Amino acid sequence: MIRRFGQPPEKGRKYTRRPGAYALLPRAGQFLVTHQSEPLPEIQLPGGGIDPGESAITALHREVLEETGWHIATPQKMGIFRRFVFMPEYDIWAEKICHIFIARPVVRMGMPSEPAHEAVWLPFNETIDLLANDGDRHFAAEFARCYG
């Protein structure tokens, strides 16, 4: 059974399953995160949807580069959770299956290519307080508790 964070699914609502890969990117007591300014301003773990035929690791590398401009190394799976949300950018209700990885940010290649995204370094505790969803906060807090 995959742990759920956030609101339970609404009875009678159809949800589209959306698997995704997301990264905790720690370095020197900080996490590299994404500030997404649209459709709503949010601090997020870098990552996103796994495209059909794509592996979670391939998606993770692609999404982190698009949203932060950084290449990563040595991704290791930390856990998984799901949440039921409306995704305004796709106009769908989704059951997001969120695969969480820990990876090492190794080199900044440039600015994020994803529109409305900015790469930000934040201290562990500040990141935990600011992350936009309960699942991301849970995994960031677990990492900080063990390694912070």
Your description of this structure?
The chain has a four-stranded mixed sheet with strand order 5-1-7-6. Strands 2, 3, 4 and 8 form a four-stranded antiparallel sheet that branches. It has helices at residues 56-68, 124-130, 134-147; strands spanning 16-24, 26-27, 30-36, 42-44, 47-49, 70-87, 92-108, 117-123. By secondary structure, it is α+β, with helices and mostly antiparallel strands. It is globular and about 45 Å long.
Adjacency order of strands in the biggest sheet: 5-1-7-6
Give the uncertain stretches in residue-range form.
Answer: none
Q: What is the helix fraction of residues, given as a range?
A: 10-25%
DSSP helix count?
3
Secondary structure elements and pairings:
Layout: E1 16-24, E2 26-27, E3 30-36, E4 42-44, E5 47-49, H1 56-68, E6 70-87, E7 92-108, E8 117-123, H2 124-130, H3 134-147
Parallel strand pairs: 1-7
Antiparallel strand pairs: 1-5, 2-3, 3-4, 3-8, 6-7
Key phrases:
148 residues, alpha+beta, 4-stranded mixed β-sheet, 4-stranded antiparallel β-sheet, 3 helices, 8 strands, globular
